[in-house]
Every structure is written in structure tokens, then in C-alpha cells.
């Protein structure tokens, strides 16, 4: 049994060494996690169990960071009891890694710094080099590139001094990613090629595949699609050889994204013979889209197998665009819907479900009351006949009384039905726009409609998970209710249709179901009011409420009712996805709008141009902050890649 455990730990160590730090950590599969968990109950409370708990914490990094934090804290508690310094440092490092994955950067830094102090105190230069690299990644994620580079160059020097080529390769790749984020593509390519040489010398195929993919992304960002696809194809082949399905899914998605981008590119230069010498890019639009669709379907299938939702959502998003460009609008709508379903799957939908359940309960009550009154009527008539036979003399009096009672029952029944109908109508209007509700009542069905000019608003609370840890469940629900109730009031008075809440996110749209030429102006006005409300509330309540990010984009959408049970009015299309990217690339306390929205509102509001910002799966997009008297958050502008 002990030899089996030792072999398992050696296997894990080899995996972590081949990956080279948590930046390139890939999901190893539920099978590996299950194997680790099976060993835990058999372990003694010693340093071996600390190592195993640390490995379990690391294994959850990509799939379930909350579980990773839980096992990391167990490792930290046991290592502290044993007074084992290295175990304490390793546990702090893994807890920090999982907080980083949840984008809780302050918590990640807190645990990294604890680990770094121990590594430095125990002269563990290898551990210090890795943790310094992790700290650099935190600053990189917050777009503090100068500070991130300071850490990385210091770390690179340390790794070279101790002769640790594996760590040197990791840090060199990190530096390349920072230069890529700054759009310094020449420097990024130079450092990625340097990292590739280091990893090729080590024969680390898994890391080589990741590095090749990163080089492909640099070319793709410059719209140099032929070499981008060539590098991504090499990366895909190597990922298939090593069995790294996570990297395979990423490479398939990247290649397909290039093929779709080529199809939508207005420049024909990418298809010229001298550009596409090796015939990497299919010449016809139909062939490019067919290949993109096959690659996207393969990427989605892998994501389903290994349960990676973020890449799966991007895959469906790209698949919707590929089908749309192919003219298959039905499949495009299905793929777009699947993208939204995956996006929504991590959130609860209790609000809509409860509302529909109430409507159904009220309808059932009305039907039961009607049946009860009908049965009562039959019983009264039968009793009247019997009394007529036995008490003929009282027939007239009883008949009059029964007639009056019957009339009263009918009147009362009608009154109850009117009350119940009004209540049902009000509940229906809570989940559907008035026009859609009327269509549903008249026809029993509704049809999806295309709206050419609308503006979509997305809001999201910053660090909602960590905020929830500071509140009791009831306090968290009460605060969400207070905020969303105010949002409903603001959108209502600005002629905006609320679509739904998704966990701590809020989605609304202007310009439907009735066209409104002021859709963009109304949305921006509402966003300013929402932002002012949250700023004032944050100043009064501090950590008992949340900071907010807001994103806005204008364009076209498809709107309609989803399904036939527990239905909900929803919107689909690239406009919704771009609005979400605007929110993700905003910062706390700011309203981030797209170029399209800016053109519609620039005469009504003062806006600050941010430049072109890279948005996930969208490339470089022009963005603007709406200028207003808002609270300036201490957080750095965060770019989500």
C-alpha cells in the first residue's frame, strides 16, 4: 500500500514538473482526483498526508477552485500541527493558486507572501523562484505590467543563477505573455521563441505544446493567420501525442477562431498565394467554415468530456458565428442558445422558477374552485328535488332562497375568477414583456423576433464570492434583493426591459419589444443611475455590499421565449456576447461601452477613450468609459483574456 502511494506522489510530481508551474496547469482529469481522494483515509497524520492534500488542492485548480481551497486549508492545518515549514509554505502556495483561479487577487497575494517568507527563511531558492513567478502573474492579471515585469525579471535572474531551466522556461513564457498583453508583439515573440528553445532542450512535450500555442496567438493577434494556424496545428499534434485534452480543446478553438476571422476579414491579402504558400488556409469560404465547424465541434466534445465550461462556452459562441456566416441561421441560433446555457449553468435560476411555479399554482387553484362550485350546484339541485317531494308546501320559499344563493355563488365565483385572472396576469407580466404576454395568452405560443437596433446592459458584482464569505446567507440574499430591486426601479423608469438576473449578474436591454430611437441613451442614463446608487451604498455600508462593473454594447439580437416548460423571455446574438465582454473588461465603479454605443451617445454624454483592448474571443475592440462623478476604485483596470 505504501509503495502504491509513493508511486502516486512521484507521478504527480512528474506531472507538475512537466507542466512547469501553475500558469500552465491543465486539468488532469477526475480519475486522478478520485485516485488521490481514495488514498486520503488510509494516510497517517504525517508529512506524507500533507503532500497528498497539497496535490489534491492543486488538482482542483482548473475544475473546482473552491474544493482546491478546502483541501489546501486542510494541508495547512496539518502542516502547522506538525510544525513542518516546507509543508506550510507549499500549502499556502496552493491555496493562493486556487484564489488566483477565482480572480480573488488580494487573497492570492496574501497566501503567496506567506509562502515566500518561509521559502526565503529556509533558503529554498527553487520554491522562492516559483512563488515570485506566481506573484508576478497576479500583477499581470491586474494589468500592472511594470510591476509584473519587475518580479519576472528578478525571478528569471534567480532561476538562471540556480540553474533551474524549467523555472526559467516558465518565467520566460510569462514575460512573453505580458508583452503580448501590451501589444508589444515583437518582444513577445522573441521571449516565446526563447522559452520554446528551453522547453525543447528539456524535451517537455506538454510545455512545448503550450508554448507553440502561445506563439500562434501572437500571430493571430496581429491578424497574421497563416503562421498562427501553422503553430496551433503543431501544438495540437503534440497535445494529442501527450494526451493533454485541455490543450487540445484550446488549440482546436484557436484554429477555428482564426478561420472564422479570416472569413470576416475585409482584407483579401490573407488569401493571396504568396501569403498562404503551404495551403494552410482553405481557399474557399465554404471550406474554411466547414473546417472551423468540425474543429469547434471537436473542441466542445472534449470540453464536455473533461468538464471545462469556459472553453466550451467560447466554442459554442464561435460555432454560432460560423453557422451564421454559412447561412445556417437555425443552427446558429441553437449554438448561441447553447453558449448562453453553458454561461448560465454556474448560476442559480430560482427566481424565474419560483415565479412560474406561482403562476401554475394560482391557475390550479382557479380550476379547483370552478370544479368545486359546479359540484356544489349539482348537490343543491338534487337536495331541492328531494325537499320538493317531501315538503311541497315549502317549495316556493326554498326555491327562492336557492335561486338567490345560486345567483350569489355565481357572482362570487365571477369575482374570484376576476381576482385570480388579474393576479395571474400580473405574475405573467413579471416574467414577460406586455406584448409577449398578450401574444402568449391569445395564441398559446410566441415566435422569436429579430430586433435590429437595441442596446444591451450587463452588470456584475466584483469579488462576489469573497463578499459572500463575509456575510451570512440571509444577509447576502437581502443585499442582492435590495440592489436588484433598485435596478428594476431604475430600468423601469428609463423604458428598459429587464431580461433576467444570472446569479450576481443583471441583464437588461433597451429598444425591444417596441422599437425606441433612444435605446442607447436610455441604457447609459440607467447605467449612470445604477453606478451612482452602488457608489453611494458602498460608501455607507463598506464590506456589507459590493462594487459593480458595467458593460454596454449596441447592435441586433433575437428575442423570444425559451422552451415550453418553465419558460423565460431571453435574448441571443453576438450583441449580447459583446456586451458581456464590455462588462468583463470594465473596472469596479466604471461603465465600459463599445465603439458602436459611443457613436450613438457621444453627443449626450462625455466619454473617455480607452484605446483598443483585447477581449476574449473578440480580438482588439475600441472601448470608452462614460465620464461621470463616480467613486474611483483602488483596483487596477483588469483585462480578461
Q: What's the arrangement of secondary structure elements?
A:
Layout: H1 2-19, H2 30-39, H3 47-59, H4 65-82, H5 85-101, H6 105-121, H7 125-141, H8 145-161, H9 165-181, H10 185-202, H11 205-221, H12 225-242, H13 245-264, H14 285-306, H15 309-326, H16 329-344, H17 350-390, H18 395-431, H19 434-443, E1 449-461, H20 464-470, H21 473-493, E2 497-502, E3 505-510, H22 519-541, E4 548-562, E5 568-572, H23 574-584, E6 591-594, H24 595-601, E7 607-615, E8 619-626
Parallel strand pairs: 4-6
Antiparallel strand pairs: 1-3, 1-4, 2-3, 4-5, 6-8, 7-8
The CATH level-2 architecture of the domain at 453-626 is identified as: 2-Layer Sandwich
The biggest beta sheet is recorded as: 8 strands, mixed
CATH superfamily of the domain at 453-626: Nucleotide cyclase, GGDEF domain
Measured by DSSP, the beta-strand proportion falls in 5-15%
Helices, by number, come to 24
The number of distinct β-strands equals 8
| CATH class descriptor name of the domain at 453-626 | Alpha Beta
Computed over alpha carbons, the radius of gyration is 30 Å
How far is it from the N-terminal to the C-terminal residue, by CA?
44 Å
The assigned structural class equals: alpha+beta
Dominant shape: globular
